[in-house]
Amino acid sequence: MKHIYKTVALGMALLPMAAWAQDDADYNDSLANKVNVAFRTVDKSDLMGGVSSVNMVELTHKNYTTYSLDHMDSYVGGFNGQLQLWNMGDALVIVDGVPRDANNVLPTEIEQITFLKSASAVVLYGSRAAKGAILITTKRGHNDGLKISVRGNASLYVPKSYPKYLGSSDFMSLYNEALTNDGKPTVYSKDDIYSYSLGDNPYRYPSLNFFSKDYLSKTYQRYDGTAEISGGGKYAHFYANIGLMHTNDLLNFGEGKKNGTTRLNIRGNIDLRLNDWITGYINANATFYDARSDRSDYWAQSAKVTPTSQNPLIPLIPIDFVSGDNATLQKMIANSNYIVDGKYLLGGTQSMQTNPFAAMYVAGWTKSTSRQMQFDMGVNFNLNQVLQGLTFKTKFAVDYATSYNTTLSNDYSTYEVKWDQNRFNSINDLTKYGTDKRSGSPTADGTVYKQTILVQGQFDYARSFGKHNVNATLLGNGYQRSLSGEYHRISNVNLGLDLNYNYNKTYYADLSMAAIHSAKLAPGHRDAVSPVMSLAWRLSNEKFMQGTKTWLTDLKLNASYGLINEDLDIEKYYMYDNKFTATGTWWGWSESANSLQTSDSQQGINKNLTFIKRKEFRAGLDANLWNGLITLNANFFDIKTNGLIISPEATFPSYFKTSWPVSSFLAYINYNNQSRTGLDFTVNAHKKFGELDLQAGVTGMVYSCKNTKYSENVAYDWLKNEGARIDALRGYQCLGFMTEKDVVRDAAGKITGYAPGIAVINNNAQPGDLKYKDQNGDGVIDGKDQVILGHWTPDFNLGFNFTANYKRFTLFMGVTGNFGGSGVKDNSYEWVYGASKYSDVALGRWTPATAATATYPRLTTQGGDLNFVTSDFWTYKTDAVRLNKVQITYDLPSSLFKGSFVHSLSVYVYGSDLLTIAKERKYMETNVGSAPQCRSYNLGLKVNF
Fold first, then answer.
1. Which is more confidently placed, 843 or 656?
2. Can you tell me the distance from the alpha carbon of 552 to that of 541, in angstroms, rounded to the nearest whole number?
3. Which is deepest, 216, 284, 725, 805, by most CB within 10 Å?
4. What is the annotated signal peptide range for this record (predicted)?
């Protein structure tokens, strides 16, 4: 903590000078040649490897998106599209030098995104960036006069698919079948099933379909508008971005019609020059976010509520069906506070006195409100008068985010009907459940806040002595993040040193290191130094390569090796110390409790617990062929993560831990090791054919991982984690469906046992259930029989982007793919048992008649442990190729705007998430218990003034 206070004091001393900006030269460099890396900007040709950058100004013109990292795996090798670089875990996102959320900055606000993958690229950020960092740099004003740009978009979202659940009559038939399979009496008569199948009275014989057009719109919409204003002169630059967005909802009844999200963002970046040696900047951003939603939990309930039941739920009860000569019922209707559209009572049952349909109309609403305020400032000093090439800069930032919920909650009555047996459309009785009670006013709850304070200062030295180029950085960096409900703040404090030398831009050497501190470890082990050494060689500058200049424009090899100490994987504080319960079990002495009691140990002590270590070797190359026709960047990486913290139950005697009394003397230790190896690459091609300009890029990553050391004590090799993949998918090996040959029956036909060699999970198994391989031959199927069935993470990720520009037309296309990963079909749509809702997969169920063609186990009302456990019957390959984006942009001729205040105008249309090519596309595109995945179609307009 004292390290942060010292840094804060330094920053506060410089705050009065924080109204001045960066040097003009920093802004006038082309984004194509400059890359923002840790704490500085470098020439792209001088990068030392493990770094990729994307020019967002250029990209946004041809590929408009609404999320800052949308489909970045199409442009960056080694990025998996889920905040992960080289599959190490979530990377640290840094916006304008401050740790912030990627979803709170829009693509229209961004100038450049840099992906720091290698240890050499992230080491200066200390522990918090040990799994990689993503730098987002927002736009700034330039010394080129006032510029105004206005953009508007209208998007249409179309659901890809909905779950296909069976209607009432099919559900009743299959549920009866499941009861029969379990030796239980059926509950639905043939007459009932027939009446429901006719569908001629949906009130008396309902077949609930949550995805009906009665409840959902075919599409929902999103609208947004953005205004950008920038400009400046010699002494001041400014950039402002103001945006407003609104989306509505698919739900088209009750409160669902009012569902929607509105977002307002305001950003201002100001740069000022005081004199030739002091500049500074101030950045401010405010985001106002409001999301209004119903209180029905509609999507989650859509996966649970069956289309009918023994006491069928009728969402809306028509009043004109209620017997008019029954005064009691008419009085009940008259006293109801909630009559939908003046025609319907809210339906319910004794088991579902509240239900999503009734709740949608009258339960009220919730509005989630979020406010984020971000502020940072800095001062830059050119100290050439002290030492040529020396500069000093400092930064101070304060971010505050808060969110809360406002809820209007109503209680309501529902009614269960009794139908007149002599009149088809007549209700002769109503049973009321609950009480009508309107809430007087909304209530607020769920308040959450987050605050980040950052202070940093650094000296930079950059000087050239003929062909010798020297760069050095000495910095102090610290920030703390406070979260509501958490006692300990998230802290990062470190000193950094970077020494960089190159000779004639041919031979490079770089030494980067960080001194870090962590309060998660015991005193004496809280400080560490993380060093990384990098070397590079530009072969294309060598005399022996001169003969290749006609086709090999540039070729640079680079490599690095280093160690990063990190505490990201230390989950809690005080893991190094003893932990005792306040009151223990029945032994010991406690006068206050008038009994024999004592405290129980929950955790042993290990003051030698230390940082987890990322040891990385990386080798890469950068190549430019035929003067930019083809450019190539590739990195081979081998990362060892050593000293992961565990509680070593397999290493210490069993008496160190007891289940009763609940007690443990086991201390956490640094033990487990992991290895990640892979190759990422990015290949870009650019060629002009007259007025036709073509660009294409291919990105990819080949990846593997394994546990190289693992604390375990297992009886069989197939259970070992050591040597297996980190992301191994384990389960049972399925041998198909059980048949009559697999069971033994008595004279009455009752199953009394199983054939030799057949092992079961429990003794309820019968023909039509899944059977599994008994790996250890003990006659029982249990955890000892689980083997590796695949792995979750793909072996290979692929990205592709293509741009064709002809005259004023621009076509853009983005594609991604992944291969080699596996998944498990384990949601409620696939795993149907008990009284669950039946989906269409159940139609392929096993029966004696369909034993040869069945694709699904027999139906059962029992638990799921017979068939619905992880096995290769349920696993599938997640291999897929996705067409993420196609956009066509047309830039109107500038001659149309001569003499006008309009400088240019562009119109564009695009489609997103258009196509998925995969064997399991249907399953992968169907959401269960949540809103559906959607394709989107957009019409946009951009005007420059």
1. 843
2. 11
3. 216
4. 1-21
The per-residue pLDDT for range 731-776, each reduced to its tens digit, is 999 999 999 999 999 988 899 999 998 999 988 899 999 999 999 9
* C-beta separation of 341 from 438 below 8 A: no
Helix/strand/coil (H/E/C) assignment for every residue in 710-733: CCCCCCCHHHCCECCCCCEEEEEC
Residues in CB range of 288: below 8 A, 6 or more apart: 263, 264, 265, 370, 371
- Picking from 850, 661, 665, the residue whose alpha carbon sits closest to that of residue 767 is 850
> In the structure encoding, which two tokens stand for residue 237, read together?
């630059």
Q: What's the per-residue H, E or C state across 170-199?
A: HHHHHHHHHHHHCCCCCCCCHHHHHHHHHC
User: Alpha carbon of 821 to those of 82, 155, 817, 876, 877: distances in Å?
Assistant: 15, 33, 11, 9, 6
- Is the pLDDT higher at 142 or at 469? 469
| Mean pLDDT computed over 607-631 | 96
| Helix residue ranges, H only, 515-554 | none
Distances (CA, A) of 437 to 362, 363, 413, 440: 10, 10, 9, 9
- Number of residues assigned to the chain: 945
DSSP state of 755: -
What phi and psi, each to the nearest 5 degrees, are found at residue 456?
-150, 150
Structure tokens at 838: 């039946």
- In order of 204, 427, 430, 619, 875, the CA distances from 423 in angstroms are 11, 8, 16, 83, 52
Question: For residues 390 and 698, what is the distance between their CA atoms, to the nearest angstrom?
Answer: 40
Residue 200, judged by CB atoms within 10 A of its CB (0-12, 13-18, 19+), counts as exposed
Which residues, in sequence order, are bridge partners of residue 618?
560, 637
| pLDDT tens column, 155-194 | 999 999 999 999 999 999 999 999 999 999 999 999 999 9
Q: What is the pTM of this model?
A: 0.91
Q: Token pair 């946009």 is at which residue? A: 940
Q: Which of 464, 392, 501 is nearest to 46 (CA)?
A: 501
Q: Which residue, 729, 737, 882, is CA-closest to 797?
A: 882
Helices 190-198, 168-181: crossing angle, 10 deg rounding: 160
Q: Hey, what are 149's tokens?
A: 């740009």
